[in-house]
């Protein structure tokens, strides 16, 4: 067992330690660590990062767990399957928006063009 003597550093109102980079790599602390207070000593261990499952692995886990999904069958009666989702997209409104005059430019490009033509007329 190798012993390191590490000094405390002031961090705001707290104090902290700096771990050597080699020690961080060796023990897998790159993604954080967990501190255990064991009364008379402190233990550091790598923070476990949960593995992200693929859709296939998730489906396998669900089947293996034997979960009962029958309570979700009530959602089938909500009628969402009967709604025709291919509605036409409504055309952009030609009514003036709040704070604009009728026929005023609505996009920044149109406002720039309109301001250039006003400057030319003056």
Task: Explain what you see.
By secondary structure, the protein is of the alpha+beta class. It has a domain at 8-46. 26% of the residues lie in helices and 15% in strands. The protein contains three helices and four strands, in the order E-E-H-E-E-H-H. Strands 1-2 form a two-stranded antiparallel sheet. A two-stranded antiparallel sheet has the order 3-4. The longest helix is centred in the C-terminal third of the chain and has 14 residues, at 108-121. 0% of the residues are buried.
Major β-sheet annotation: 2 strands, antiparallel
Estimate percent helicity: 25-40%
Structural class by SSE content:
alpha+beta
Q: What's the overall average pLDDT, rounded? A: 79
Strand order of the largest sheet: 1-2
Low-confidence stretches: none
| Strand segment tally | 4
Which helices and strands, and how do they pair?
Elements (H helix, E strand, L loop, with lengths): L7 E4 L2 E4 L3 H7 L5 E5 L4 E5 L8 H11 L42 H14 L1
Antiparallel strand pairs: 1-2, 3-4
In short:
The chain is of the alpha+beta class and 122 residues long. It has helices at 21-27, 55-65, 108-121; strands at residues 8-11, 14-17, 33-37, 42-46. It has a domain at 8-46.
Descriptive labels:
two-stranded antiparallel sheet, 3 helices, two-stranded antiparallel ribbon, 122 residues, alpha+beta, 15% strand
């Amino acid at each position: 067992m190798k012993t390191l003597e590490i000094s405390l550093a002031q961090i705001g109102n707290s104090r902290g330690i700096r771990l050597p980079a080699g020690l961080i790599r060796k023990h897998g602390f790159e993604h954080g660590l967990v501190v255990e207070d064991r009364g008379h000593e402190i233990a550091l261990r790598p923070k476990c990062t949960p593995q992200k499952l693929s859709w296939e692995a998730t489906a396998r886990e669900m089947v293996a767990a034997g979960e009962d999904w029958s309570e979700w069958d009530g959602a089938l009666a909500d009628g969402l399957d009967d709604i025709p989702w291919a509605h036409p997209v409504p055309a952009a409104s030609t009514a003036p928006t709040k704070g604009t005059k009728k026929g005023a430019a609505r996009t920044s490009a149109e406002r720039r063009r309109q301001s250039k033509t006003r400057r030319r007329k003056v």
